[in-house]
Amino acid sequence: MERPPLLAMVPLLLALLTASGTAERGRAPQGKPSRVIRTRRGSVQGVEVHNGPRLPPVEAYLGLPYAAPPTRFMPPTSPPSWSGVRDGRYFRPVCPQQLPDLSNRTAALLTMPAERYERLLRLRQFLTDESEDCLFLNIYTPATGETARARYPVMVYVHGESFSYGSGNALDGSVLASFGAVVVVTLNYRLGVLGFLNSNLEPVRAVANYGLLDIVAALEFVRLTVAAFGGDPTNVTVFGHGAGAACINFLMTNPLNATVQLAAGVNCTATQSALLPCLRTQPLSALLAAPVVAPRFLPPFGPSLDGIVINDELFTRRASYAHRLVSYRVLAGVTAADADQQLSESQLSDGVTAAQRDSTLRTYVQNTYSYHLNELVSVVRHDYTDWSRGQQPPRRLRDQLVHALSDAQYVAPVTRTVDMYPDDQNTYFYVFNGGSDYSDGKKVSWLSAQTFLYTCALSVSS
Ligand SMILES: *[C@@H]1O[C@H](CO)[C@@H](O)[C@H](O)[C@H]1NC(C)=O
Ligand SMILES: *[C@@H]1O[C@H](CO)[C@@H](O)[C@H](O)[C@H]1NC(C)=O
Ligand SMILES: *[C@@H]1O[C@H](CO)[C@@H](O)[C@H](O)[C@H]1NC(C)=O
Ligand SMILES: *[C@@H]1O[C@H](CO)[C@@H](O)[C@H](O)[C@H]1NC(C)=O
């Protein structure tokens, strides 16, 4: 198979950056030591994982360095080789990050549903060990003992939900590896300010999107190394689920606003030549603590146009861009109500008033569009109102709001992404409706993007 240019993978990644599914416990899989596997970087011993009598055992090799410890605000470089047998039985540090504040449950449920709060608490157990030296991946393989020569398809999980937090460590790949007979790879990439700062204050082009480059480096490591673990390097699927598919929207925001706020917060001069040298000397805690406020519905730091990793060819020369995507197949989709995670617990269970719906829609439109804001709000409100019914009780208003926000942030961007791919039989789109209940008056149990993988892993394991 001809190898596609690495940068052409970026739109694919944008489509697939995902939500975190989390295992119940914040620790590595336990078991007997596995075989020792020799890779081109060195040897590694992992752990044998047994998930009950019905699933064949798999082996987990954790914490492999896919790049050198990164230099702040620089692209990743080749991983070091090591001598001796590396201990692959435990996770290595996650990238520095900031979870939403979970310290006061009552306060947190004013901004998120209880289900999301509980999920973030479970995720937090995996995030206790943080370091800028965080470019590690984990390999779960069904190739054990005499089946070791098999060439299993490879699935690389890119975590998501936010460009500010998460870790591949939180997805226990052992169940999928065993049930699906695939090699599963999970990985960390740089997040937040360290992963996505855009320092192009003057119209010169300097690389941003370090986090995306980390993912590309991890895929390169997988291509070169996965055969030693029983994986087929010509059969690699990148997968995930969640907010990242909406990246095309994020790209249109103004990334320098956050850059300027950050510089002010740590007393660095916001000029092209002075900024990065100054930010490199700052303690990590100061960078993470600097007050950077993003408008609601937008991340402070996320993928942005830098002219190098992501250039505006994406928008201006669609046809030539699409041409670079021909060697990829894509399966993309949405769930019934991806935006339900953005309501508070009481809004999700009891519904919203007309005034709350209007103010949320207005905030969304103001923070995302530049022109005709009042007209946009009116049109959206009109189009998402069910005119066949006289009364609009709070739960019906809630449904209208969630559908409008889901369409704007997920359905439309995912559709646009899929539309960029060449028109042939290799592009698929799905709508996942499991778990939704639209009947009026009932408490819904929507299954949003963020819970999708988690639920799948649980139902597969039980
Ligand atoms: C938690 O947050 C709620 C709502 O904001 C507030 O009323 C309460 O005092 C807070 N509790 C603590 C212990 O800070
Ligand atoms: C990848 O592996 C799957 C499962 O074995 C197989 O169905 C598929 O044809 C393979 N794809 C390629 C491109 O080899
Ligand atoms: C920035 O400078 C101000 C005024 O000199 C000072 O009060 C503040 O502590 C400094 N902040 C940091 C993060 O160094
Ligand atoms: C930058 O973000 C802040 C905080 O959301 C906002 O008040 C300000 O208007 C933004 N400035 C620009 C130029 O977008």
TrEMBL record:
UniProt-listed Gene3D superfamilies: alpha/beta hydrolase
Region Disordered: start-end pairs: 22-42
Pfam families: COesterase
Keyword Chaperone listed: no
Presence of the UniProt keyword Lyase in the record: no
Keywords for this protein: Glycoprotein, Signal
Lineage: superkingdom: Eukaryota
Signal peptide positions on this chain: 1-23
Limits of the Carboxylesterase type B domain: 34-257
Family matches, as InterPro entries: AB_hydrolase_fold, CarbesteraseB, Carboxylesterase_B_CS, Neuroligin/BSAL
Similarity field: Belongs to the type-B carboxylesterase/lipase family.
PANTHER family according to UniProt: NEUROLIGIN
Protein name: Neuroligin-4, Y-linked
Organism in which the protein naturally occurs: Amphibalanus amphitrite
